[in-house]
């Protein structure tokens, strides 16, 4: 079995002339502000010439399911995806793919010499894992998922695994969105990992599913990614002294057999740029810059774009909020004042205050100080409304949220992300000039 890394969670598996792509992304940057780490570029002419036997997509998040990447592939390629939302399948069909199929947990799919079995992830509404069998070998691609305890019991039967692709980076999304709530000091690897990995008893462990950073100036680069490749290798090596931790940079390929692992010819269409054995640099004491400073890094909006974003703050947000149902245990179930601050490219700010009570929201004056505040660059607000920007790249800043409050109850987060599935992919299709229902 030949296994090659594309980027992030993307891999090529080959066996006996069968070739399958998993979660392929052929973009740098991708998902609007994810920069490949280590740096790579792609020979898109060669990518267009690929004729894979199938593509498997583990879930619909934009760093795994990219319409602009799929657009490069031959439309006869079968596409298999684990997703509970029909909208995503319709989008892929709108690109022109004629064989698009939904994956089911524990239902094997045989493509030539390779068998792929989707396995249940902890968040089964979103994620899946892939059990890949070929040439008498078993490889577990955990992708971005957290291991479901029942699935772990199921997978123990296949131990020792020949290889496990393990999502090694525990991204601190909440800490960068609400830094006032962030825990300071060293970050421990998840306490359940040693037991899970020992139960799988793999021969080889690949730190997987996080090969990107944000913009070069971004403070997220030292706050979002707390686990280094070196630390992962050291700790997993201590838990599994019989295993080898193997780093696969983009383009790098290996040939796995029952007896050995040897280097293989790299992917010719993934082109490494500069130093490849780079590592993350986490700074637990980093002070986040003010949102006004972050906003200066983005190009100014034109008049129409600015009007759209500000009109949303004045009216559209209120309409969306009142159409949704608030959880009973939400912080906002109790009357409070919420302030939204929108910063432009020059650092200027426009503030909006609202009185929020349950499912009701209305503008209010400055008489009462806010207890929950949200800040955002206007360029990112516009991108969230029109371009499918994801939450972790919007540089939203929340303050005042108590420790027991769920930050995703924030009114702006709910209004931007509780209304549509596949907003990023829909924006991609629009850029590609593809009309879909």
Would you write up a description of this structure?
The chain is globular. It has an eight-stranded mixed β-sheet, with helices on one face. A seven-stranded mixed β-sheet has the order 9-10-11-12-13-14-16. The protein has a five-stranded mixed β-sheet with strand order 22-21-20-23-24. The two termini are 40 Å apart. The chain has twelve helices and 24 strands. The chain has helices at residues 44-48, 67-70, 86-94, 149-155, 173-177, 193-200, 229-239, 291-295, 303-323, 378-386, 411-417, 423-432, and strands at 2-5, 11-15, 18-22, 35-36, 40-42, 54-57, 79-81, 100-102, 109-111, 114-120, 128-134, 137-141, 163-167, 204-208, 212-213, 244-245, 253-256, 261-264, 270-272, 336-343, 349-357, 360-363, 372-377, 397-399. It is α/β, with parallel strands linked by helices. This is MBL fold metallo-hydrolase. Pfam families: Lactamase_B_3. It comes from Duganella aceris.
